[in-house]
Amino acid sequence: MVIDPRRQTSDAQPPRVLLEEVMVNRHSQGLEPPAASGAAPDTPPFALTIAPGLRELDLHYTALNFTAPENVRFRFRLDPLDRTWVEAGTRRVAYYQGIPPGHYVFRVMACNADGIWSEPVTSLTVTVRPFLWQTRWFSGSAGLAALGLLAGTAHGLARRRYKRRLAQAETRNAIERERLRISQDMHDDVGGILTRVSMLSDLGQSQADPASAPQQFERIGNQVRAAVAALDEIVWATNPRDDNLPRFAEYVGRFADECFEDSAIRCWQEIPTDLPKLPLRADVRHNVFLAVKEALHNVLKHSGATEVWLRLEIPGATVSLEIEDHGRGFPETMPPGGHGLDNMRSRLAECAGTAELASTPGQGVKIRFVFPVLQDQ
Questions:
Q1: What is the pTM of this model?
Q2: What DSSP string runs through 212-231?
Q3: How far apart are the C-alpha atoms of 345 and 354, rounded to whole Å?
Q4: Do 232 and 286 share a structural domain?
Q5: Same domain as 252, residue 166
Q6: N or C: less crowded end of the chain, CB within 10 Å?
Q7: Spatial contact of 107 and 16, defined as CB atoms under 8 Å apart
Q8: Number of continuous H segments (helices) and E segments (strands) in the chain
Q9: Domain stop point among 132, 166, 201
């Protein structure tokens, strides 16, 4: 055999590129044929749809060249993931990991030993399906939900701050009202009593008859005891430890006993001993107590009864306090609001309660105070 180097020709035919195998997550995949027969010339011959959860994509390709197949070099790209051609050298596999959901086109080209490159061949279209949370509408919905949650949180915080300021303002107003009430009680009750004590003392000093001194001292003692009782009432009304139903019932019961202690009227009490410790605000306790006090004084002064009943019940979310006597009752000609009835109704109205009165001449009086109580606090 004789070889003439001058007559030797180069390999001018570029290699033909073929796609051998596609592996998804290390599992071989079957490739789909073109969707339509009348596709454009650049339409890839195969298509691949990948379910959500793609981790690895291996694209195996080769080139037909019988002159020097071991010297064939390749370059590839996966549009739009790769911005430029990837120089693979003689490697015949393209490796991809963690490809995001979307549509891709894989192209590959080969070069023979003489440096002649083939035209870029569109070998495969790849569609990576997203998880539900990776879809655009889900992201949009999540964004809207996040905005709504943020707006709701901001609104809730603003509303909470408003409620806190309102509660602080109400607390300040309540404190101011309580201070005003205490000062009025001190002036009206204790101040008036001490003024009478001073007047009785001056009167006793001006009298020359020693025989009248015991009477003056007795009157002074009565006024002092009344002042002590008034102070005790003020302290009870302002003591936070008494802001509950059992302590209120105990105080009202004790006051009723002391009210009729030196009279001919016998006081019967029907108050449960196992009252729940429901909270009562100081202003509610004070207003209801003053109404009860006025009703008991009416029985003592005007009823002519020999017995009186004090009953306390808890029907639902309210407290019912009833005072009943079998005395002479109110006359039919009594003006509306007489015997302090308007004051009682006004005091109950201040704590969202009611004062109900029933009376028949000659058969006694029944007055019922109903006011709400907080079940939870």
A1: 0.49
A2: GHHHHHHHHHHHHHHHHHHH
A3: 6
A4: no
A5: no
A6: N
A7: no
A8: 6, 14
A9: 132
